[in-house]
Amino acid sequence: MNNKLLDRIFASAKRAYPNGLKTAWWLIRITIPVSFAIMLMEYYGILNVIGEFTSPFFSLFNLPGVAAVVLIMSIFTNVYTVLAVLAMLHLPMREGVIIASMCLISHNFPIENLVMKKTGSSFWQVSLLRLMGSFAVAFLLNLILPMGDGNLSHFEIVREASFSDAFYHWLSSSGVISVKIFVIIFALLFLQELLEEFGVIPYIVKLFSPLMRFMGLPQNTTFSWVVANVVGLAYGSAIMLDQSAKGNMSKEEANLLNQHIAISHSILEDPLLFTTLGYPIALLIFPRFFVALCFVWGQKILKFRPAGEKLQNVKS
Fold first, then answer.
1. Long-range CB contacts (< 8 A, 24+ apart) of 121-127?
2. Considering the entire predicted model, what is its pTM?
3. pLDDT at 104 over 90
């Protein structure tokens, strides 16, 4: 490896480090207090109380009351939490697939929705969109999956034996997650800088252009779409924010992209986690992709303005 090549690689790492540190610190500042609040709610049984109140609504989708608890935990944490809870509950495959699919859409709102807000979407509209997408997928899967015979009304979240155990578990997991966030964010930004330095990104855009047209998404959003689907929104946030900051996609283009990836992102890593519970991966991928496709094309066909902007007044 010659010195010129090493210089280019080192320069890429040097450019990636400041943005990586800034983004990682932003993510950690959100992750720590939110995860602590969820730990307290879980330990003191607040999540189970919420589940009791919401169970009648979830019964419309033939789901147990615990589905509400899992979804609430998912909204404020991540799919790893959902995986751990579902593994503990041992739900039948049908109900597990529906809940997992809902959580694959609606998870980690404090971080992921803030990422989409920073790139051009309204935080609350994206939150509503993801919840609507979760229930749209639940409705679809409820129609196509055969009903089981089990009584699912007695499942509940089991808390830690003592507060010290719960606190230690939270503290240790938060430390691991914080290190993981920094390492992954820096690695992704370093990779992006390398791809830009050696002119690879235009080839990636060209490769995925036909798929972007099929999904109704602008070509300028291709690289961010690839990132969101390979590593997810949280870890991919550094690249998405950087792409937006560099003007590689406008706020309107980023908002349209967000309509899709809010529903369907991390299409391999996250669904693969749930295959460890015996859930078919196709049911975890294609319903989300179909609903995301419908949402984007529905917005384009009905000529909705981008989220966060007022609709233009139409003269009668």
1. 121/254, 121/255, 121/258, 121/259, 121/262, 121/306, 121/307, 121/308, 122/307, 122/308, 125/307, 125/308, 126/258, 126/262, 126/307
2. 0.75
3. yes
